Amino acid sequence: MAQALIAVTLSALAMTAIVGVRYLLTSGLFAWITSRVRPGLYRGMNKQIGSELRWSLLSAAIYGVPAGVAAWGWQSRGWTRIYTDVHAYPLWWLPGSLFVYLFLHDTWFYWTHRWMHRPKVFAAAHAVHHASRPPTAWAAMSFHPLEAITGAVVVPALVFFVPIHVAVLGIVLLVMTVMGITNHMGWEMFPRWLINSSLGHWLITASHHQRHHEQYKCNYGLYFRFWDHLCATDRGLSAP
Q1: Helix, strand, or coil here: 83?
Q2: 150-195 pLDDT per residue, tens
Q3: For residues 104 and 156, is the Cβ–Cβ distance under 8 A?
Q4: Burial group, residue 85, by CB count within 10 angstroms (0-12, 13-18, 19+)
Q5: Is the full-model pTM beyond 0.70?
Q6: 82 membership: H or E segment, kind and range
Q7: Helix (H) and strand (E) counts for the chain?
Q8: pLDDT category of residue 240 using cuts at 50, 70 and 90
Q9: Would you call 124 exposed, middle or buried from its count of C-beta atoms within 10 A (0-12, 13-18, 19+)?
Q10: Fewer CB under 10 Å: which end of the chain, C or N?
Q11: β-strand partners of 224
């Protein structure tokens, strides 16, 4: 029992370090790109960015715990549905599992996000994220610990129930990281023809999420606009 506890703790610490370094590298990359594409956009925001960094690194520690438990459960106990043999499931399940994970994560995010906009919950937790006015490339993980917990458990929980190839899981984490950052960096990196296309009507980018930070009571999704359209909370695009 003691050995298992030590192994889980070490796994959680390793995943915390991975999440923290991933955040610093990817947010740093997009902040650097912003400085080249939109010079001066973050001028005078050093205090806010410092706050975003501190909250985000705390969130990294929170994200690392369930991720570490899932990683230990997979490697040491075989408890998860993560697989490495590409032929273990039909090949169509590779892209299928990617969509399922993103859709389920998006669904969880939409409804917990709406819940966190209830006045008492907002004041207790979600106000930390909205303190970034406007958000920057460093704000994607700038959460109060209570909010970080709601985001940290989703993917680690799914791997215990929904089969996924380890490489596709890596893609899920990449999409989660990149979209979380690009949706907050204050400008639209995708071309307007894509944003205004039929495909863009269903995808969330900075133009869509920026409006959430402007108006609060709308545009709650993470990856897709499905739930916003279905629940009449979609208020269209901003122009970051």
Answers
A1: strand
A2: 999 999 999 999 999 999 999 999 999 999 999 999 999 999 999 9
A3: no
A4: exposed
A5: yes
A6: strand 82-83
A7: 11, 2
A8: low
A9: middle
A10: N
A11: 203
